[in-house]
Each structure stands twice: as structure tokens, then as C-alpha cells.
Fold:
Amino acid sequence: MSNASAISPTRADNFPEWYQQVVRAADLAENSEVRGCMVIKPWGYGVWELIQKHLDAKFKETGHQNAYFPLLIPLSYLEKEAQHAEGFATECAVVTHHRLEAVKQPDGTVKMEPTGKLEEPFVIRPTSETIIGAAFARWVESYRDLPLLINQWANVMRWEMRPRLFLRTAEFLWQEGHTAHETSEEAMQEAKLMHGVYEEFLRNYLAIPAIPGEKTERERFPGALNTFTVEAMVQDRKAIQAGTSHFLGQNFAKAANIEFLGRDNLRHHAWTTSWGVSTRLIGTLLMAHADDDGAVLPPRIAPTQIVILPVTPKPDTKDAVIDACEALAKTLRAHAFHGEPLRVHVDKRDIAGGARNWEWIKKGVPIRVEIGPRDITSRSVAVVRRDRGPKEKEFIPKEQFIQDVADILADIQKQLLERATALRDEHMHKLSTEEEFRAFFTPKNEDKPEIHGGFALMHWAGSSEDEDRLQKELKVTIRCIPNGDEYAEEGTCFLTGKPSSRRVVFAKSY
Amino acid sequence: MSNASAISPTRADNFPEWYQQVVRAADLAENSEVRGCMVIKPWGYGVWELIQKHLDAKFKETGHQNAYFPLLIPLSYLEKEAQHAEGFATECAVVTHHRLEAVKQPDGTVKMEPTGKLEEPFVIRPTSETIIGAAFARWVESYRDLPLLINQWANVMRWEMRPRLFLRTAEFLWQEGHTAHETSEEAMQEAKLMHGVYEEFLRNYLAIPAIPGEKTERERFPGALNTFTVEAMVQDRKAIQAGTSHFLGQNFAKAANIEFLGRDNLRHHAWTTSWGVSTRLIGTLLMAHADDDGAVLPPRIAPTQIVILPVTPKPDTKDAVIDACEALAKTLRAHAFHGEPLRVHVDKRDIAGGARNWEWIKKGVPIRVEIGPRDITSRSVAVVRRDRGPKEKEFIPKEQFIQDVADILADIQKQLLERATALRDEHMHKLSTEEEFRAFFTPKNEDKPEIHGGFALMHWAGSSEDEDRLQKELKVTIRCIPNGDEYAEEGTCFLTGKPSSRRVVFAKSY
Structure:
């Protein structure tokens, strides 16, 4: 392969198409023949397994237990919370029959036709508040049964008209936490706690400095009183909503009848929350870190952190080289990064070295190590970091590499976060006037409609209707009302001129 | 609670109802309002997580990778393999619409009605051979791409008319391995390898001495050439098919067009296998080991292996007791059983000691430890093993308990396997004549139709029609043609008198 980038088009040429090509080149996932449903390939699923492992540990540390609830939701459950039903109605896959019958066709072939019509149709869960609420209503009797802290790892389905691998698919994998509490304060605390867990996970594991904040009324989860979100800026300066946590008040408890006998001996409705992240995180990760050569995986969630590539130009030294590679792999696996044994793979496949090397570049493995016959004699290894150029090869004494490897991984992890933070800070601006705002979101170049300002920090006192109008006109929405003192200051709304005590984040988004 | 058993009815009174009561008393799962779909509660899901963890490690050790494929299968995919389609047709949940519309009812309420009819309906996967086959067809080009060794952890759905928690539910969780190979021999070797993994897992983790063997043609997976099974005998002497592994020949490869360019430069169809176990394992586990006091969990898959119960009769010593319990838990967690830190829980809930103790008995925790004020002074602990009677309490010096705890867990694990093996061997008999066979499977007592002989080892040379007839008459089927030299001997079929060189296992089954 020449000096040209491995991914065509590049990010600068066509960002959305570059993204699709990265997913394909890194062998992470592919479209299936079932419209909107993806196949998550082993490398992509490996990333998801690590995301699951680390988040699951955090959920358990914070007192949650896993459980599993039915895939199918009776229509009558959905109808109980009107806003919720309305919010998901256009995206529901509906099961209406429970068997098939083989019917002979005129041409002699056999076709399967649905039969066994159900009295009440089911939808495939788009989210599980209603079905889990029904279980909570059975489980909760007294305040002693609270808090109830449950999480589910599951697949969900939201029929998508414009699917995009990982970011927006009809079926996706996720976790959904569902909790019930005695008081409003405790439920709010829980929603904020998990919001914090997400923010920290994105920062420390995915190397993404997402902006944590609250959604405006218009952008809330259907049925929630507050929605907290973490909004990541990716390389085309758009926002991705990477995880949300909802304070549901008593809405769902009333709909599902989650009641408890309180300390006052009276019956009360519980206060509930829900919170989730999905395989969308993988799309976010790619859009945040991948480059024109393919995926770039932060070491903490890379299924393979170090790939060792035996260079075997001559048959008579091949065995010695492969032995040296296996020996190094074994040594490295006895070392740890963040308390876990290093994930090391030796790629012994008999294919051209250049093609093999580029496969691992495209997959985004953090460190590539080459060992050839001369390296055995010189006791050195050739090391290339994925966060640097493909030709920035360093020859390092093997013992020193072994000693430093965890530090190198830590440094790659740190570099990725620093780069993403620099990008975010460069393209996040406090603006004052409507004119500035419009200019910020108006593409400078008609051929590149994706190039725009980024995140605009605006004083805001407008209505949901104002938000509607801005979305229609400029394709921008309020991503969040960000946490933190740095956004609290007196000012006037750029659109309405009304007083405002806090800036919000406007952006285009996926 | 008195001397009476915690579960009513007992096993002897009514085995099927006893089973339902054990699932409920141990808080493992419950029926949902979605017919046939269960809610797996945290304790039950905890068992499943451990089953997943250990099996997943074995799959990875044997070279398999996880991936994820669509939940929905187009009808046209099913139609490609006729036997397969026929085999699952009566159990398929069918998705026919992709949105809902709110329709005002005459009484003013709103009902959601299915709309957006799909051109081609989908079924929710009852198993994934067809959809994974379509992916394999895309992935495989040359013999160099083989073997392809993939596993999926997923939910599947088979509409059940007579659901029973864990054992037979409309939705269940499972893993399904799917592999493609260059030769028939390699595929057969894979099917047998995974069959062996299942047998070993049941024995070493679930303490179940299942009989491994092959299915007769009549009992094979729809579309398979060979099905290998592990058949567990449970306490009412019935069989449970606990895991199966299928050699699919080229049937599915031809249906899905999984072709590769061979070493001979010609195109060939691949040889495929599939294999799976499900949450049914949890039902098998309970029916194998639970007793009239509730669940009895083998230590290797118990979410909590040791529960510590503070006995706090007086407020002034309460803190000291709880501190001693927490200190012991911390010490124990630094110990390992089979290379994993001990799973220890301190139950500090403020409820009556008897009720609390019985909760853990019913849940089947392997070891219960009580610590009271006097035990602090005497530096001893009161230990009860779940495999012994609830009153067989031993007072052991604390230091000795800490030293011995892993051995005690190992001994419980061993005892459970020995008991289950003794039960199996007591009720597995070689019979010769049809008369003996009929007597073996005819209940001695009309009130207790479930009490029958167990596993009958019979010489067999009959047809599928003969099997049909025996099933209708006596409700028995051939569970497997067992592996192992001890079943290979010359004889004559008990039904047809034809020569036979091997005995098969007949049993009633779940």
C-alpha cells in the first residue's frame, strides 16, 4: 500500500461515507439483508464485550443487579403512558401471529404464511419501562423493598427509516437500568449518579470528553420529567447523544401501579428512573477517534491491545522468529494494564506482510510490534503506535519495551483523550447574537455541508416552538443545558432577548 | 418455621408443582403477563451469568469468537431449508407491521393499532442457522477463510403452548454456536468437540452426570444429519435434554450458498455445525439438586457461595457483630475457589433471624455462616452446609473455617455430583424384553403417574414409526444412543427381534 490513506473517501472528502468505510475496513459490522438490522462482527462485538464488562462492574459497584424481562410488550401496556406510547408508536415492530403454515403455490413451490392470529398484538420492546414497571408493581410492597436497583442487558428494536451502522439501527444492543425509590430526591440522585457513571466511562474508557447536561423539555425521553445526557463532539463537529439517564417522577409508577406502604403507613407511588447506553457508543468512538487509515481504538476497550507480527523472509529462520513472537506474547500477557492482563495476539497467517500490517492498522489496534530474524540477534523489537503515523516505527530493546508497554498504552489512551478534548474546545464557542449563531451553523462551502462551527454556547430563554423553528431552518437543536459553573452567567437570550442565567449547547447532531 | 419442609408440596407429593414452588421460593424467576415469557429475577440471572462466564471461556479457549446477528428472519430465509422451516413453523412469532397508530375509541379512550404492513413478514428467530448462514455466505470465499468459528449469546423465541419456567418458555436466553468447515471430518470433529464441552460443563460445574450420546433420526434437529445430546436424569427419573450439538452436513450451506474455492481450485459447499445450551440448564439444575427445602446450588455456579448472617440479639453488641461479619467476609473474599475470589454476602437486613435464614436455604446458597456476640468471644463461627440438613450446624474455630472453606465448597460440589450419579445409576437399567420394558414405564401407583423406572437401556433396531408408537402408548422416547464401550454389545431389539449391536436410552422426558 502506498502513502495514500487506507480509507477512501477521507474525512475531509466525505465524512458520512468515510464513516461507513471505516466500519467496513475495520471489520466491525455490516448491514444484513434485514433492513436496518446489522450484523456485529467479532471485532465489533469484542469492543462491545469490553464496554459491557466495564460498565457492568460499575453498575454492580453502585448496587445494581442484572435481571431479564420479556422481549414482547402487550399493546395495552404501551397505552398506559400516553406520552410514551406516542413517542415510540412510529418505530414499533408489531407481532400479530404466532405460527406459520406452509402453503403450496401454483408454481409448485411452498410459501410460509402467517397464521394463528393473536388476540392482542405485541410490540418488540423499543425500551422496557412499561414491562419492567409491571414487574416492579408485583415486587414492591413496602418501603423496605426500596430502592429497587435493576439493570438489563438486551436487544431492542426501533424501526428506522434511515439506518446507519451502530449509530442508528432498527435493532441494537444496550443496557437499560430501571430503578424505583421511596422519595423524589433519591430517584433524582440515582438519575444523576448514573449520568455521572456514563460521563466518567466515556472519558476514562472511550477517551471521549462528552459534555454532561440536561435536556430541554422538547428533547426529553417520552414520559420523563428530566433527561440527563452526555453529548460527544465528533470529528465533523456534530454532536452524538451517547447516553441518557431519566428522572421519571411518578409517571410510570402511576401508569404501572408501583405502590408501596410508606413509613407513614400510607400507600404511595414510587419514584422511578431509567438510564441506558447502547452499541451506538461504538459509532461514537469511531467518529471521535478514527482517522483516514481506519479505526483507532483506545487501549482500554481494544479487544487486542498489542498485535505481534512475525516477519519471516526466509524459511530457515521462520520457526525461530515465530518462537520469539510467541515468547514475547507470553511475557506480555503476564503484564497488566489497569489491573487486567494485556490482550496480545500473534498474527501468524501466511499472507503478505504489507496487507497483514494494514489490516491491523484499519482495525485500530493500539500497538503493532514486528519481529524479524535480525531483531532476534539484536534483541530489539519494531514498535508502531496507532495514534501516530503508520511509518513512525521505533526500534526498542525488547526488555525496555516489556518494561514500558503499560506506560505506552496509558500514553496512547491519554493522547486520544487530549486530542478529542482539543478538538472539542477548538470548536465550542460562546456566541452572543443571532447573526453570529446563524453564521456559525451556515456551511462556508456548499460542497461540504458538514463543515460548520461545532458546539455553540448560547444564552437561551426560548420556547419549544422556537427550538422547532431553529431545527427546521438550521438543523440545529439544543443538545443540553450543560452542568458546571462555567456555563452559569447572566445574559440575554440570543433569539428572544429575554434574560438568561445559563448558556445551553446548540449543535447539529446524529 | 417448623420442622416441616419449606416447599409445599414436596417432591414425593407432586414433583411438577414442587418444581414451580422451588423456582418461586428461591426467587429465581416468575411468569410475566406475556404468555410463556418469563421474568428472570436477579438470583436466577446471577446463575445464568456464571453459566455464561464459564461456557464463554471454554468457547474462546476452543477458538470461537462471539458475534451478533439480527433478531428478525425474513420468511424467505426459512423457506430455503424445507425440513427446518417445517420443524419450526408452528412455533414462530411473526412480525407483520412496523408502526402503531393511535385510534380514538367511541368511549373516548385511545387504542394503539398496528399499521405500516411489511411487504415480507419476519419471524423472531427460533434459532439462527438461516440468518447466520446468509452472513457466512458473504464471509467465506476461499478455504483460507475456514474454519469459521462463531458463537452468539442471544434471546430466541419458540411459541409454547405449555410453558414451564426455565424448562420450556416462549422466549429463552441461550448461546448458539455456528461453524463452517472445509471438510465433513472437520465439521464432525467440531460437533463432537462441543458435545464434549457440554458434557464436561454439566459434570464439573452443574454437578450433573448427563449421558452423552447421539439422537436417532426421529429426534434430530430439523435439517441436521447428526444431533449429539447430553441427557440429564432428574429426581423424578425423567430425562432433560440439556444441550445439543448438530452436524449439519452441507444442508444449510446449500440452502444459504456458503461456497468456497478449495485447495483444488474448485468451488465447494462448506460443512457446517451448530450447537447450543439455554436457560433450560437452570431448570435442569433445580430438578437435579433441589430438595424439599428449596434450591441447592452447586458452589461453582452459585451467585453467592457463602452468606454470613449476623445474629444481633442486643443493641449494645450489634455493631461488634456486624464488624466481625464484615471482617470475615473481607478475609474470605481474598480466598479463591477454582481460581476465583469467593462470592460472599453479609445479610444485614433487619428481619427476623429465622425468616432470613430460610430465605437463604430456599435460595440454595452452599454455605451459611452465623456469627453472634458469643462467637466473637469464642472466635468461632456456626456453619451449615446446604447439602446437609438445615439443623446440621457445626461450630468451627474461625481460623480453621477460613483455612478449610475452599475444601468445604469443593466437597459440596463433589457430594452433589455423587448424589446425582447415584440416583442416575440406581434408576438406569439394562432390560431385555418388551414385557420388562412396559413394566418399567408403567406407573406402579395411579395417583403418582410420575413414578416410573427411569432410564431403560435397550437393544434397538426399530423404525421411526416404532418410536412414534411407543411415544403415543407409553410417553417414552429414545433419548440417545449413548457414547461409550459399555453400551456396545451384541443383542436383539426388544421390540422387533432384529439384531442390535448397541443399547439405546429410553426415558420419559421434559
